[in-house]
Amino acid sequence: MQNFAPFHPPQRLLLGPGPSNAAPSVLQSMSQPLLGHLDPLFVKMMEEIKVMLRSIFQTKNDLTFPISGTGSAGMEFCFVNLIEPGDEVIIGVNGVFGTRMCDVAERCGAKVTKVEAEWGCIIEADKVAEALKKVSKPKLVAIVHAETSTGALTPVEEISKLAHAAGALFLLDTVTSLGGCPVKLDEWGVDAVYSGTQKCLSAPPGLAPVSLSPRAMEVATKRKTKVQSWYLDVNLLASYWGQERVYHHTAPITMNYGLHEALRLVLEEGLEARWKRHEQSYLSLKKGLAEMGLSLASQEGHQLWQLNAVRVPEGVDEAAVRKSFLNDYSIEIGAGLGPMKGKIWRVGMMGENSTQKNVEIVLSTFKKTLGK
Ligand SMILES: *Cc1c(COP(=O)(O)O)cnc(C)c1O
Q: CB of 175 closer than 6 A to ligand 1?
């Protein structure tokens, strides 16, 4: 039998599309002793997570808690609970995650109408209005707020109003936006939302914060058909995360410690201050890149603060630069996907990592690698 050495990963600076580095105190919190998942002390902590999540999502929604799973599990949670076979759904597609939402919705039996935009651009409200006119009874309109695959931030207030005027629910993916730029569920009329822990919340991947408005909850509880997923059925999950504490699944104890600490740090810093920090990193990175003759590929005026799509200059080997970042400097940056493959690097400035110091590190590493 072969002997296996313990795994000791090196320290990397994770400046790609996620995961980003977790805050040190988050990792420390995760090495604390385990509690049982129905231990009164653990239950008390779960309650605090719900309160902190409502505050960060800016919502009064009672049904607000983390799904045990990564961001994509949050996506699946929203669709399996709100969609029944034959429902008409409108989905904005301007990158990988809008495309993934279509796949998930189709697996739920939805009739999907796509509202497409060029990758790197936002979903325009008037295109959504046109699509709404074409379907007879729209159940749901879904948009990716911050498209991590392209670096574009779609403004959603107008789209939310259009969805409601047509009698549909409004669903928003905030995996990359939450904790990095304004996300205001109640003000924007968002009915269903999911996020992830490993982007701007600076915790490891493993949980997906979600929230459903009373209107969405009514749809989920008054369905004609049973939710196809037992694990993600909100009707069952609500009695575990709600006051009854009925055993459903064992919450990932340690991940919840980590999320609790991560949310605490977000609130300690303050949402406005945290958003400002992300904005400043973006502005200063963009300025520094411009000085080197590099530019961003996403739509001007709608660029993400937490994810920069840096255009690969003519004649430069995109993969070789990324490889040098990783092997020579222990820095991870991301590649382009789909139509942007080979054309951009994705530089994440998420959560804890969004600092002036990291901006300078990225700029100097680009200078060194591109100089070669
Ligand atoms: C990362 C991401 C997801 C998927 O999250 P996982 O944690 O990878 O499952 C979904 N949507 C967006 C916008 C993302 O950036």
A: yes
Q: How far is CA 273 from CA 180, 181, 282, in A?
A: 10, 10, 14
Classify domain 24-267 by CATH architecture.
Answer: 3-Layer(aba) Sandwich (3.40)
Is there a cis peptide before residue 19, judged by omega within 30 degrees of 0? yes
Q: State if residue 148 touches ligand 1 by the CB under 6 angstroms criterion.
A: yes
pLDDT of residue 237: 96
Query: In the beta sheet, which residues pair with residue 153?
Result: 146
How many Cβ atoms are within 10 Å of 324's Cβ, its own excluded?
Answer: 17
Q: Can you give the pLDDT at residue 16?
A: 98
Which of 14, 72, 103 gets mutated to test ligand 1 (max ligand atoms within 8 A of its CB)? 72
Closest by CA to 255, choosing from 52, 56, 68, 36, is 68
Q: Give the span between the Cα atoms of 77 and 12, in whole angstroms.
A: 32
- Closest approach atom of ligand 1 to CA 198: 7
Report the alpha-carbon distance of residue 338 to residue 320 in Å, rounded.
19
Burial of 196 (0-12, 13-18, 19+ CB in 10 A): buried
Q: What's the pLDDT tens digit per position in 128-152?
A: 999 999 999 999 999 999 999 999 9
Class of domain 271-371: alpha beta
Q: What is the pLDDT of residues 260-317, one digit of tens each?
A: 999 999 999 999 999 999 999 999 999 999 999 999 999 999 999 999 999 999 999 9
Residue 60 CA to residue 62 CA, distance in Å, equals: 6
Q: In the chain, where are the structural domains located?
A: 24-267, 271-371
- pLDDT, average across residues 82-90: 98
